[in-house]
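ok so i was messing around last nite and threw this chain in just to see what happens. nothing serious, just curious
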Amino acid sequence: MIITYMKMTDSIQGTCVLMCPERERWMREKKGLLHRFEIDESTKTSRQPKADPMKTVKCYSRSAAGMVMTDPSQLRPSAVLLSTIRYLFTEIATKTDVDWIVIYDFLFDRLRAVRQDVGIQRIDVPASISIFEPIVRFLVYSVQRLCDRSISEFDATINNRHLFECVSHLLVLYDQRDQRIHSSELEIAMEKLKLDKSREQMEALYILLNMGNVEALTRALMLPLCLRKATYVQLSMKISFAWYLKNYARVCNLISRLPPLLICAAMLNMSNIRRTTLKIMSSGYNSKVLAFPGMKLQQLLLYKDIETVRTDCELHGQKFIDQNVLFEKSAFKEDTKLKNSEMYYTRQTLHEFLPRILLDSA
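result:
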């Protein structure tokens, strides 16, 4: 068995101009491995449906014995990768006639293949940044969109692992781009940074994903002044500092001022925020006769509805009576595992934001 590797000193340029190489398309068509989104509509009722070349997208594959991963004809250049991402987010992600978990599974795999093509070709820094930014948005958005699904349908742990890998890689790309700026061009570059809303969004997102983390805050404080003073970077830093100081009411209040995608990122920490806040309140409001208003708690901790407040309180051993919480310190359960926190945006609102969330920095 022979395994072909690419030497680190080699460079390679893909030549495939379609979203899926012909060889793969023919193989998957022959073996019946086409996804429902890739089938030619005129043949969908046939015993062996045909692939639509304009809809078929290269799937992710692990390297294996005898497989040549560096064949230029099987790799897509950066322009094709970017057009593939745009197709996935405008034509597939926005579908309303199919369960979004089916859409997620398809997109997750095809975007992983995009990342694989980037790595094999060692695509230049600016193009890599343009490719990774929308992928990060997709992974953040998906956690919220599918937070109420069972682990058999959506594994948030796997999604989050890929999310942190992509964000970390993206920050490295930003740093590499900054280091290549010649001193004579520094002022012009800084002016461009002021207009780089995607960079602002990603730096803020990293801070929110690592809320209260000293390393993330240190990076934020070392950013160029124009980025450090950017609206959402500043707001994210305030949220992170409030978390570090255990001021959870302020954390939630500031989160509500963020745009949709950054709220999605912040909500990854909401289970911990709610658990810790409820523990503190079980001590501070400990009483057998006086109750805390459930609606106020819903507002304070950004719950979607009062029933979710009831569920979380009861899971933590706190009584919920007539939409009020009767906090009791001795009954508090610390080992309870809460479900992924759903943001207070409705599903419909999120769907309306979808194309903008995935493709733009707004």
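not much to say yet. The longest strand covers residues 319-321.
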